[in-house]
Amino acid sequence: MNRRARLALLALPLLAASCMPPIRVSTAFSSRFGDNDRARLTRVLEQVAAAPAPSRASAPLVAAVIQGEQRAVAVYDVATHRALWTQPMTASSTPEILGDALVVEVGSRTVILDLATGAQRGRVEHTGLELAGAAREGDTIVLCASSGLNGGTRRAGRIVAVDARSGSEKWSHDVGGLLGRPAARGGFAFVPWDRQSVAVLNLATGVEQARVRSTDDVLSWVASFPDGVYYGGRGIYRLTAESASGTRAGSAFLANPLEGVPGDPLIFRDGFRATTGSRTARDKIQFGFAPQSAQGSTVSLQGETVVLGYYHDVLAVDAASGAVRWAQRLEEDIESISVTEAGVFVVSATGKVRGLELATGAVSLVADLGASLGAVALSPQGLTVPTGGAAPEGSVREQLVAMVRDPDNRLVPFRAYLVGILGRIEDENVTRDLLDLYTQRSIPVQLKQRIATALQARRNGAQFLIQALQEHYDYLEGRQAPPLQVIAPTLVAMGAREAVPGLVAHLLDHETPAASLPDVISAIGTLGEAASVPTLQRWVQLYRADTSFRGEQAVVLNTAADAIFRYGDATAHEWLHARAQDSTFSTELRAHIDELFARAETDAQTRATRQSESERQEALQAELGHLREAIQAVPGRLSDEAIDGAWNAHLDELRECAQGAVTRNPALNQIRVVVTLRGDVPRAMLQDAPPREVTEENGTRRAATGEESLAWAHAQMEQLAARRATVRLMTYAPNDAAMRASWTGSFGRWSSRPSELRQEFRRVIDTRGARSSGAEAEAYSGLGVDTQGRELPWWLVSAPTLEVVNPVPVTATVTRPSTASRPTAPATGTPPATGTPPATGTPPSPGTPPATTGARPWWEE
Amino acid sequence: MPPNHFRHALFAAVIVSVTAHSGWAQPRAPRRTAGAAARVIPLRDAVQMLHAANPDEVREGVAALTRLGTAEVVPPLVELIESGLSDSLLDYVVEQLGFVGRAEAIPTLSTLLHHRRTAVRRLSVSAMKNLFQRTRDARVPPLLESALRDSDRDVRGEAATALGDINARASLGLLQRAFDRNVPEASVAIGRVGDFAAAQRLMESIGRTPLSVLIPGFEAFMARRDLTDDNRHTIVETLVSRSPTRPIKEFLQRWVQGLPPNDRSRARQRAMLAIRQIRDDAPASGGAQ
Q1: Smallest Cα–Cα separation from A492: which of A467, A468, A458?
Q2: What ipTM was predicted for this assembly?
Q3: Per-residue pLDDT for A845 more than 50?
Q4: Which residue of A has its CA nearest to B111?
Q5: Which chain A residues are closer than 8 Å to B174 by Cβ?
């Protein structure tokens, strides 16, 4: 190939490459990217810490959408109360002030305006997507737009970085998920992603540098504050290296101290919810806070306070405990709320900017912009709260009460929420406040129910309720009866026995609504106990035949009967019983009294049954305990001591028996005895848990009763005990039926516990000594003595161990055992291997018993 | 005795005589059943009858005790009430307690002012009134005043009427409060117990309160003998000037007809003039504010 051809070949791939579209490599939002990487996050945080504080507008500004027919975007200088400029446009988002630029969505594009003049610097098209938000650092603005922010099934997001001066694109990413409002700091863009992650992108290149993914929380926003980057959902996370844990517990986290606020606002503006460019209820319900420098895994806020703006109410609460610090009611609804170290600043729809002292809630007018505003963004840089503002009057309790009294029915859910907060305050005056609120005629029904609930949860301030009992209906004075259906149960919960006279007065007052009487009567009974019974009896007696308590109202008399029955003694029960038989009593009451007695009887039976069952279970457990002990006590083998004990207890009989054997067979040198113990306890008997089910005769199965279980345990114990007597003992001896019978009689009832294991022990009786004459033989007492003088069982002694009187030589009537059948004497001095069981089925020694006995070999027995 | 004084004394005697026989000042006697009318049942037997299972027999026992009317009959009747009675029987016994008219019944009647059934409360008020007219027991007017505060309009009306009937002048303030709170019966009661100032206050209600409510009160005022001719003249003049309506004309006609023929009072003359002035087709309601 010549040079030209080689060059042509080299050029081909280059040509091909230049014609092909560029290969896009995912540099961000990749599913393969390692999230919660502490090292990466640490590097990001180091740069963030080194970065200067985010640039803010030089003067306090308000950017807003002017509402009305001629919609326009306007920027106001709060200090001069003047509009810097107004640009007619149909903005569809809340404007965002980003340094010297202003970003706002208009239809399907986002425009970048000059903050000073309103001139358009550039625009970004995002057809099909909604602007989630924008952030800026340096000359770079990042914008995030997504579809599905306000619903829908399509989920797509786009992040674009543009030049803040020209609007030209620097880089962009399209993502198959939702991207929320970003933040920018330290050369990074922090982008909330799919409510689970915060992706950290290099602001210059768009390459992802780190990612935080929560494993136990929802991440809905991210924001840059002077002391760092924060993110979160319902709570506040400070971005630290610990954020790599991906958990709430492992991160620097502060929970929202006010959960459950109606409207369910997040503690920071939801980055995944598009704004509308108009006034919305969501804008009127906002939290506000200002982070301050914190160390370690903590989140610290200015004044340790979180502020909640709810329409025209502003609430400041302790960030840790949620305790209300102050509650201020403003004249107008809030459209925007901002918290700085200088205070709380709110903007109303009429363009009034107000400042509230964070510590006291004292409110002052900062500026009146004189315009009808919506979708307001406040840049509070440099704003201060004027001194001499009007602080909310009274204590926190009184401030909350005033808010609950607010007749604005838009706020009924929030007023109900405040009732809950009020009810949790320990001050006993709250009880009086709640009672007062409840009796207000202007209070809506749903709010009343919440107040009643809060009141019934109170445990102090009973004196106010008792005082309220002094009030009675009065037509002339226009006075209503107190809310007894709330007061009476609360008094019961408080255990206020001193309330009984007041309650009785209401029982006897015909103005007490019938609907409240059951509560009143129950309270009288519960608090007055036995002392209240006579009063209730008189009252029941008076109305026993009256039509006042017929039909649905019968429940009132029935409740009184309940109280008499419950708190009355035997006499009261007799009284009730007699009334049940009295035909002049109302039929409903009589039927109820009958039911009371029947129910009491049933209850008594149930209690007795339960008691009986409880006792039975107790007995069963005790029995099972014994059974387990018995089973545990069943030894695998008999100990030497046990065998010795039994053997020694029968020495006299053995001696006599051996003596008889020698007498019958003078040639007998040894008597070899093999005792076989065979425990035959079935495995089923070693079960210590009763069967859970029993089978009926018809084959059906059902759960075993306690009684049956107890019977089973008894039977098990009895069987186990009975097995102690079923130990089989077999002896072998030379063909001497008398001896065999004697020994069987001696050991037939072995007193030791049985087991399933076969066990043998062997004994040899040497009779030679018994036959010898002389003093030596007589020296044997039947028990040996070891070298140290300790007595030993006789079979451990090699010499004759039984003192057997040598008989007169027997005549031929005695049948000698054959030599072949004569057992071999064991080595003397060797104790029998009582601890070692023999191989099963292998006779230990003596060979075949004499055929003359006709009996089976002993080992077969 | 000066002639005028003599004339007033004679008139008062006539009034006392008339009221004594009309049943206005004294409670009406109980109606007797045919069977019980003739015989007087001894106390013990009557008490025994209260324990009968037959309600009619119980009722007869109650009637017998009422006829006896002594202090001893009250405890058995109270005991009967407290034992719990059917509606009709309780109503009957409460009514009879009023006829018995013994102060011993006041605690029980006081309790019954708070009975849950309206009829019982109303009858208790009535019984209290009857009892007061016999006993003049000072405990009664405050109890009747308390009934003015009742939630039931009938009970309030009964109480207002009763206070007027017993001439409870001390209750005037409360009656005026009741009148302001739309207890129409208080109008009559005020007319009976009120002074001329009360009448003037009543006149201020012309135009705000229906004439059907006010006129009975003015009738009561005009029937009073303790008002001077000037007072009555003022009343007539005010009524005519502020409400020249047909009901006022009819009221004045009734009043004039009840006067003695020889009455030459200024009030009568003004009333006669008004009767002539007010046309027959004058409006049925209305009046100056």
Answers
A1: A458
A2: 0.87
A3: no
A4: A508
A5: 476
